[in-house]
Specification:
Layout lengths: L5 E4 L5 E12 L3 E4 L17 E4 L5 E8 L5 E4 L3 E5 L3
Antiparallel strand pairs: 1-2, 1-7, 2-5, 3-4, 5-6
Length: 87
């Protein structure tokens, strides 16, 4: 994805152009987690963390999209898909 690409909203039928890309804006590659089952009826406490594991979505870009039917807005990079690439 590059500036000037034509993109489509994954959840709807909106179409727009990429105006700006903020690289590595959201998320993390790994996080402190509680690995394994938690006993039923027990509260989760900060000292129960026992490992570092990868996150579900990882690091994502923030993209400013100028929609054809409205005002520009920021979207996560996984919420839009490229229709045609600007060469």
């Amino acid at each position: 994805m590059k500036v000037g690409d034509l993109v489509r909203d994954v959840l709807g039928d909106r179409i727009g152009f990429v105006e700006r890309i903020d690289v590595d804006y959201f998320g993390a590659n790994q996080a402190l987690k509680i690995l394994g089952p938690i006993p039923r009826g027990k509260a989760i406490q900060p000292w129960m963390v026992n490992g570092i594991a990868p996150t579900k979505n990882g690091i994502q870009d923030r993209v400013l999209v100028c929609w054809t039917d409205g005002l520009p807005e920021y979207r996560k990079s996984n919420e839009i898909e490229v229709i045609s690439e600007n060469r």
